[in-house]
Amino acid sequence: MGGSDSRQRLPLATGRGIVTVLAVLPLVLAGFVIGYGVGSGDGRFGEPLREAWEGGQGTVDHRPLAASFTATGVEGRAPQAPSVLPVGYSDDLGIAVAHLQFAVDETTVRPDHTAELRLPVAVPPDSEGMTVEVASVHPVSCLCSLTAATAPPYGTVWDAVEVNASTTEIVFDVTGAINAPGRYGFAITSPDRKAYLELEGAEYNTGPALRTVSEPDAPTGPLPPTAPAPTGPGAATSAPPIAPSTAPSAGPSDTPSESPSASASESPSASEPPSTGTVPTAPLDPVGSADPTAVPGMPAADPTEPLPESGQSEDQLSTCSTGPKLVPTCGALVGVAPAAHTSRVKEDELLAFEERVQHTQQIYHAYERGDDRLFPTDAQIALTQDPEKPRTLFINWKPRMASWAEIAAGDPETDAYLDRLAEHITANFDKPFFFTVHHEPENDVVQKAGSGMEAADYAAMFRYVVERLRAHGVDNLVTVMNYMGYLKWVEKPWHDQLYPGDDVVDWIGLSGYGQSLHDDGRSDFGEIVDQTKGDTAWPGFYHWIAKEHPAKPMMLAEWGVFHEEDYPDHQTAVFQAARYQMAHYPRLKAIVYFETPADSNGGRNSEIHLDDGALEAFRDLMRSPYFDVRLE
């Protein structure tokens, strides 16, 4: 796979199976053009699109145009036709991600449909449970461009399941992803850093399938007479036939194979897709639907007139940009809290940080306290007005006028400040910006009746502040629930009482720091994003968000790695790991570095420029395609 000849065969030993790169019938994808206007060049989503979604054959198993994988431990492009598709981590491959591409047109799918991605398992994991996720990605025009370093950034995460050694098939609900004729790409990932499985490849017209089930159009005239049902011996009821897909097949045969049976899946996950006809749970950010009552992932307009910008198909993910609530259509935003715990001018320090890392920081994380001043300030607003370097704000407000319970009950002093703040924001700043109230509340919880600072008091206070600002016309808040990353708090019985509620929380944030003080082989980015501890039942914050709040994007609201002169390679190791470990975390949509020369816990230094190797590693991280996002 590392050579230039795509026909080269190279066996790769993996954790539990053998991945053999078989160049069987290479897929000709460059210049691929479908009659409804999706392909290369201009004219995509032209007039034929307006006539789409009028056919729809009922149940169709679409075979992949392409089925391959990338692996961080292997240099070179993706194999053309591997016999199996590895997912997860193995010593030989590193982090493996399976990539699939399908074509959907108006002859096979109607507007009212469901869609399942059905993936037979060739080699199941040997662990008790392994989480597997599916996300939309931009379908590349040629596999020759697909490597671990150039793989397209993740878009919406549509579903997650848990699999084990008895799983024979993984079934994902991707209904929301299919909402216009086009070419669709999917990435199959796992956040589990010690788990591995292999899916069947697309050889011989078997393996992965995108099953769409379309509901028939409602009759527009009188119903035809119904023939009497047969009676007597030998009478039988036949099921509707499964129509073959009209999309090009990756296998050597033009004869469609029988579709996999829905009963073949033995996955124990509660996340298994709903049966045909049910409405799926809302994804992270259904793009293009201005109507909040619309079916998640479907355009708000007449479904017979699908809008090209509403889907997760080829054109939608060709460029990563922010949509509603600042959620990137693909990739992740980057930001910084510069010169924290210093008296330096933070706005100047932001510009200096950008110059050092050679990348615009789209999120400026600023901390406001009490009622000393109104925000955003003129200097903060100015940072968002540079057309060459688009930025947004993350305002972290910590009220000090009263206890949480008193604020939630309508403390007069706090109310007066919030009303002045609302007037200031509506008059001076109309762009969407991130906002949190009293971040990292765990450290301030006093779980004692009457304290006014119980976990439930925090949730009520957060809700009260957000709702009061909204009621006074502040409609550009993008709210973040910012948890503390220390695992001692997640074991507290009151931890789940902190969450204010889905209707007042847009993102879920985490403050996480490199806990190891040296490069001991354990120091990596994954410890920050999804840390667990010993035998605790805590699955890690990433797993917890995926299970408890699957519709919310995740943010590292603060993250950092402390410099230690005795272990100078520690920062470098974590920054280097972050570049490829992003492949584990499709829900992670923003990372905001916390830069300080002396933190509040022992004076530790998280600045990135104290070591040349660390600085260059951070610059490499910023150059990752994951962070090539256009802020709009």
Automatic annotation (TrEMBL):
Family affiliation: Belongs to the glycosyl hydrolase 26 family.
Polar residues bias (residue ranges): 310-322
Bias kind Pro residues: ranges: 219-231
Biased composition (Low complexity): 232-275
InterPro entries, per database record: GH, GH26_dom
Keywords from the named record: Glycosidase, Hydrolase, Membrane, Transmembrane, Transmembrane helix
Active site: E440 (proton donor), E558 (nucleophile)
Record-level Gene Ontology MF annotations: hydrolase activity
Region (Disordered): 208-322
Residue span(s) of domain GH26: 308-631
Transmembrane segments: 17-38
Source organism (scientific name): Glycomyces mayteni
Protein name, as recorded: Glycosyl hydrolase
